[in-house]
Amino acid sequence: QVQLVESGGGLVQPGGSLTLSCTTSRFTLDYYTIGWFRQAPGKEREGLSCINSSHGITYYAESVKGRFTISRDNTKNTVYLRMNSLRPEDSAVYYCAAGGAAYISDYVLGRRPYDYWGRGTQVTVSS
Fold first, then answer.
1. Could you report the per-residue pLDDT of 71-111, keeping only the tens digit for each?
2. For residues 37 and 94, is the Cβ–Cβ distance under 8 A?
3. Cα–Cα distance, 64 to 90 (Å, whole number)
4. Burial 23-37 (b: 16+ CB within 10 A, else e)
5. CA pair distance 115, 15, nearest whole angstrom
C-alpha cells in the first residue's frame, strides 16, 4: 500500500495556528479525494475534513468547522489543512488519507474506505 506523507506538526500554544501538508512522490493526488483524520491517545480516530478530487467540494466535522480549512494545490501535489484557534483538545496525531474518485458523501458517511494513508504527524497544543 502506498503511503502518504504528512508534515507540519509540532508544538503550538492554545489559540495558535498550524498548517499541515499531505503529499506523495509516488502518484498524483489530482484524482483522489483526500481526508484528514486525527487520533489522540485512548481515543478513536476522528474524521475532520475531506476535499473531493474534481470540484474542490469540502466537508468539515462539527468539531473543527469554522476553525480548520482544507485546500489543495495540484501543481504541488499537496493537500493542506490550516488549523486556527487551536485548543488543547486538538492535540493528536493527524493523518491524511487518499481515496479513489467517488461521491464525497460516501467518504463522509464511511461507505467507501480510503485507499492510502500516511504515518501521521504529531500536533500538540499546550502552553
1. 999 899 999 999 999 999 999 999 999 999 888 899 999 99
2. yes
3. 9
4. bbeeeebeebbbbbb
5. 33
